[in-house]
Queue: 4 jobs
Job 1
Amino acid sequence: MGKKRRELVKISRFTAVGTVAFLVDVGIFNLLMLTALQGRPVLAKTLAVLCATAVSWIGSRRWTFADQQPRYRPAFEGVLFFAVNAAGMGIALLTLWISHDLLGFTSLLADNIAGNGIGLLLGNIMRYFAYRSWLFRGKASKREVLTDTSSVPEGANSAFEHKQRDGKFG
């Protein structure tokens, strides 16, 4: 598969994992705002983002960036992942704080727009580039390298494909 197609697949997977994490984030945030943490949107958002980050790390590690050899040991990778997400959470919390506390937009809808709309969008842009260029930047796995025929000279491709199909590669 070509580099552009691999990147599109990765972005699609990142989006799918992000969507699940977003649903966890928004669901927990609203549940907390309507129950135990009424009137405390920053704390509710912090707890919701922590839960969503755990979901996102598992999805990113096991699916979105699964074609990359691990660059770090899992525990250290998890710490770095949570650090990148803390920066993303900081962006969401900043937009929520500005909207709620500085501008006085205190409705649940306004809190959702600021924290789960604007803040999450800006944080996700930062996260994707941080994951791709720093955290999950290990070498492509052996399987991915062996299945990429884009750099194989024309004519040699069919021999490559036969060896791959016959199970003699990898």
Job 2
Amino acid sequence: MADGPALPGPPGTVPLHLLRLVSQGLPIGGFSYSRGLEAAVSAGWVSDEQAARDWILGTLRANVAQLDGALFWRMATALEADDREGFGSANAWLMAARESREFRLEDRRLGEALLRLLDDLEVPAAQRYRDQALTYPAAFALAAHHWRIAPASALRGLLWVYAEGQVMAAIRLVPLGHTAGQRILIGAVEAIEQAAGRAQSVSDDEIGTLSPALAMASAWHETQYSRLFQS
């Protein structure tokens, strides 16, 4: 049987289950997606370390915080309150808000993969939702809730997954050296705190993104001749 929910540690303790969930080694295939970065590199928009930093941290603040982060926060807090309707509503909202076919397919596949992993680990909530379509942030929220990771910590973990995944993609695509990648990740710490604060405070009317360039890059990627990534 799966381990039960972990007991919270003393104040200041790093939630070790969160480190496992944000690991690039989590077997859900996150390494297969660039979320439009591959098309941006192909178009010449991202060609060096500074441009990669601007793209990654810019989309984190302007896009991920306003949409994924804000709706994840609602899902995570809904689970804390045992509000299944609120959880389902936020998940459906996020699924409907994707700006391209590739973004929606990526989200669905990652959500399915994480939910399947949680089901294999006998996480009760995953078994409850196994026949429903969940976004990746929704499945992440279920995992965080099961292992008693506080919503604020889980939100920062989700934002870290985005930043690190983009950096790993940039290292291959631009290409960048690993030291350059570490410099971007160091800068991402402050950006993640800002994005998390925005995600936690944004009103319902402010949720969403308006990113024509990112949406176009994702659409172009669908027919890009040579591709390393699925998005």
Job 3
Amino acid sequence: MSTSRKVVAVTGASQGIGAGLVQAFRDRGYAVIANSRSIKPSNDPDILTIAGDIADRDVAERIISEGLARFGRIDTVVNNAGVFVAKPFTDYSADDYSNVLSINVDGFFNLTQAALKVMEKQGSGHVVSITTSLVDHAIDGVPSVLASLSKGGLNAATRSLAIEYAKRGIRVNAVSPGIIKTPLHAPETHEWLAALHPVARMGEISDVVQAVLYLESAGFVTGEILHVDGGQSAGH
């Protein structure tokens, strides 16, 4: 087993941004630990798939322990798994609240904590979380309190962890996208969603992937919330 090649763990890896990240990191020679609830085994020996809900602490710990057993190190974690429920605030149910917070917050906490213990021993590492531009720029017609509550917390945690671990060789950053063209958005909504961005288009999966890869290579950048939102957070 070689431990010289870099290893990345990606959650929400079976489709959309997560699948794009898996392919992009493989194209750059990384070994990948790919997680989602429904992910299937890969024929690629350099992709280890771990099926399960990241909100379950046992799943998070398996991602790290089985990744270490297979590849010998953990260099980067991309907290991509997330859920978005758009409802008026008073229509949210207790189940909506529990579901959003468990995946968006518990999942981040579980995996990041397990990964940082390994990265600290290594003396290096990088954590990137995918949040949302709605945290900084709420949009009339897109009710998003639970997204802002959970992903806004991740933005704050990103800055806090960046400072806590800055002297230990570990960087912590986030990518804050606008609305990205993924299977979550039906084609008939695309025109309306595109108009919510000053650049008059939705983001592409590749836009988020490129931002993550930039942060991965930017050794002097930590505590950054990188907006990839077509100008949305800047104003209208």
Job 4
Amino acid sequence: MKLFYVYIVECSDKSYYTGFTSNLDKRIVEHNVGTHDNAYTLKRRPVILKWTEQFTDPNQAIAVEKQIKGWSHKKKKALIEGKWEDLVEFSKNFRNRNS
């Protein structure tokens, strides 16, 4: 069974990058080596893997990646730290702010 991963890395400038891959170890190495010239992480190396979730369905993984990419820095940090109440609270604040 093929596995797919959604991951968050913390960049040297403390920003987060969220990605999707079928080979997590290789992808983290690529981020740190600078394999892709137009990558967000190229000028923000080194990166450190902070969070990952594994999936068997690539479409589900891509949907989760897109969802997380739309989150604020503090909401991503709450996910990384497993602070579920904060994750919910930051979602509520976002909804209330845009009402």
